[in-house]
Amino acid sequence: MPASSYLVGRQPGALPQVIKAGSTIEDSLFASQRLDNRGIEGVTFKHCTFANVSFKNCKMKNLTFIDCVFVDCYFRGTRLEDSAFNASKFIDCDFTKIDLRRNDFRYYNHFKGCWIPRRELQHGLPQEPNLKHHLCVNLSDEARLAGDVKDAEWYRQAGVAAQEEYLKAAFTQSSQYYKEKFRGWDRVAAFVEYASSRLRGYLWGYKRSYLVVLRNWAFTTLILFPALFFAGRRGLQKPDGPAEWTDAWLASIGSMLPGSSISQLKYTSGYAQTIAFLEVLTGVLFGGLTVTLLFRAVFERWK
Fold it and tell me: Are 291 and 214 in contact (CB under 8 A)?
């Protein structure tokens, strides 16, 4: 939906005239206004739109925003304290140097073309894992599109951790809520999704890591494929006798590093040839992952 759609059907108003403590404002449009260096406290806004409003260095406290929209608003240096946002949208806003203190972004808020830096929001994320996951995924996407790789990665990992916490609570039936929501196959599906997420995290990590790639390479090269070769050692031909564990180990390294000539074995069975072929493909995969990590590191540093 275009941002202009939120400007239609709401009564224009002037913020300085309505910001009175204890008041409730509904279905209003506040456009092209400045509240720089002012204070707002104890006001509830319902179904309101704020378009091109500057809150620069504004002190905002004990406010509630329900189903509100902020379009191209300026929050530089804004101090926002003890306030709640429910089902609100932030479109192309500027949150540079915003100061957040004990705020509630719990219920399905959405950001588009902007995001709140993690250093300000990381301690104010929702406690409910499903709500935390929803918000973190959204903020990660927006930070990535804006080029802030560190914030995008942090929010992504926080979202994954929250989703796993939610799935674990679902299949362990940790509360009455989960007992009622996840029954039968839904509970089984939650366990399968949780297990697969944990497995992916263990195998590949939750973030780009050279150590994870190195660990997996060492495991497949020095343990997994040598064991597979040794299980089919009759298909390994050695000039001076039957193949031993050391020969299987060298065969694995030779297949993982084609052209190294570290092993003099010949593969005489279909099983051994298949294992060697699969390991060559695995080596190409690890090589591609390493190149990708190096490229991303150089690109992000240059950017």
Answer: no
pLDDT tens profile 50-62:
999 999 999 999 9
> How are beta strands 266-267 and 236-237 bridged, if at all?
antiparallel
210-294: CATH number: 1.10.287.70
Structure confidence by residue, pLDDT tens digits, 203-257? 766 666 677 778 888 888 888 888 888 888 888 887 777 777 787 888 888 888 7
**Residue in this structure with the two tokens 């992916």, named with its chain if needed:** 200
Q: What share of the chain is helix, strand, coil (3-state, %, to 5)?
A: 50, 20, 30
* pTM reported for the whole predicted model: 0.72
Report DSSP letters for 209-258, one per residue.
-HHHHHHHHHHIIIIIHHHHHHHTGGGEE-TTSS--HHHHHHHHHHHHST
Domain 1-114 has CATH 2.160.20.80: yes
- Cα(163)–Cα(136) distance, integer angstroms: 10
- Comma-separated ranges of CATH 2.160.20.80 domains in the chain: 1-114
Could you tell me where in the chain the CATH 1.10.287.70 domains are found? 210-294
